[in-house]
Amino acid sequence: MQAPDGALRLCHPRGKKLEAVVGDRVIWRATEDEGVIERVSPRRNQLYRQDETRIKSFAANLDQVLIVLAAEPAFSERFLVRALIACEAAGIRALIALNKADLAQPFAGAWHQLAPYRTMGYATFALALKPHVSDPGGTDFVALERTLQGAATLILGPSGVGKSTLVNRLVPTAAATTGALSRGLKTGTQTTTRTHWYWLGDDKAGALIDSPGFQEFGLYHVAASGLAALMPDFRPYLGQCRFYNCTHTHEPGCAVMAAVDGATGTASIGPSRYRIYADLYAELS
Fold this sequence. Notes:
By secondary structure, this protein is of the alpha/beta class. The protein is 27% helix and 21% strand. The protein folds into 3 domains: 11-40, no CATH class; 46-210, P-loop containing nucleotide triphosphate hydrolases (Rossmann fold, 3-Layer(aba) Sandwich); 224-284, Ribonucleotide Reductase Protein R1, domain 1.
């Protein structure tokens, strides 16, 4: 825990039912060289994933989530969709960054694959985070840096896409901060196993939260009946189906399926997006 004066202190929650996550504001009291968390203040939001057996919390009180992908190897659109749905369910703004812009051919294909998401309104940034490239950071690095200022941003993505490189580029003292934190709390220095909070700038108006990489994103906390409403390209067609309780999977007169097939005049929902929805609906049912 970080006190208002900036001091770091190892704190333990009072009782097994009290859980604090990165970004929480807490009421605590000192106990010799450690502390006890007495209460967690009400959260604005919380981002987490849930599978059949457990819940994994990332952080709370977020302004936005930056989902980092890489052009090579090819990213999983299913991972992206699941992460975006989790952000929509939590009411948190989502941004997308595509790394490895220095690899022209795979990047062009991956950037094209993200076109529907740009159409939906998700801000998308092209990055090239390898130090040897002629445009370090990529063409959109400065724009991304501006977007992160003054906001608490969770960086999310699979392993190996460049999240830690991005954090070190944005927060040059990140490695030193992680080392000092580990020494102060008497823990290891492996940065990929826990979530870290880094202040952006001396004024501490914004922050980056670096999370461990992972490949799966469980959505068992999302109701199947509410899934379509969390997908921006589906929303214009909701309420237009023949049946009020349409699941958009098999019913006649479904406006969503018509938008996929182009029966409305244009195919406004991509086939891959619809397949992911259908699979998710079956999973959550």
